[in-house]
Specification:
Blueprint (H helix, E strand, L loop, with lengths): L2 H14 L9 E4 L4 E11 L5 E11 L4 E7 L1
Antiparallel strand pairs: 1-2, 2-3, 3-4
Length: 72
Amino acid sequence: MNQQTIEKICVKINKRFPETLKKKPKVKPYNEDLFLLIFNFKATTADGRIMPRTVRVIASEQGKIIKITTSR
């Protein structure tokens, strides 16, 4: 996956999850034509505690997002 496609996916993810704004994802192959992008960051809860979060994105080589999952 080239850098331009990764940046295109990051823009879409940044709109949905603003906490990922300055985070670079880890990119791993998922299938022959799919890639897994992993964003790790820390979010602040309503009571002020810090909670680690992970956003996983499965995307095609052309930049089409197939699936987004989050964990807390």
